[in-house]
Amino acid sequence: xxxxxxxxRKLDEALLDLPSDHAMGLSEFDGFCAGLLVCPDLITPAExxxxxxxxEEDSEPPFDDLADARKLIAMLTDHYNDxxxxxxxxxxxxAAIYDVDVRHDETLWEIWVGGFTAxxxxxxxxxxxxxxxxxxxxxxxxxxxxxxxxIARGESDFPAKTIEEMTQSAPGLIPGLVETLxxxxxxxxxxxLATPVVGPVSRGKTGRNEPCPCGSGKKYKKCCGLN
Length: 227
Fold this sequence. Notes:
Blueprint: H1 6-16, H2 26-38, H3 45-52, H4 66-89, E1 99-101, E2 106-108, H5 109-120, H6 124-131, H7 136-152, H8 160-186
Antiparallel strand pairs: 1-2
């Protein structure tokens, strides 16, 4: 990731500073954003944020300072919005962010795919419904993405030669697959999902231990009270 903008470098550093061993890195989060944006259902930050910092459900977020929490959440939502706007332009300029093993000059696309997979796993039943209406091109794109997920997990039944070929071509294939799936998402009756994430709407003062007014079911302090 040598060509990152200064903003992405700051996000990368902030993610690396998270204490959980299960926190996402930048490449994984980038794949996660893509998966969220092509998902048939809208998934709110109240649900997906805790996946990013790797905490167990309903556990306290890993922040000692509220200002630090707000800063990271702002950086995360900024990147989500950047990905959303790039896909929504539909100009073929989406680019995935990959980690690189400089020792072997190897693109570690599997990390990005891990983030994409985490997003799919938030709404697996919705993907099952959406897949029924795929046209030929979209079905092929989805099948290819599933094949890459299985390869990344070491679960593929393909011959070794096919796995090697797909491993080599994956970094170049992934952006086009994401764009095709996003186009399918736009074709759904409920319209585009590329709506920028914004802060919670003011609804009057809410107690930290009261239910969050966004409807997530979480306490305010563990949801919009962070932002």
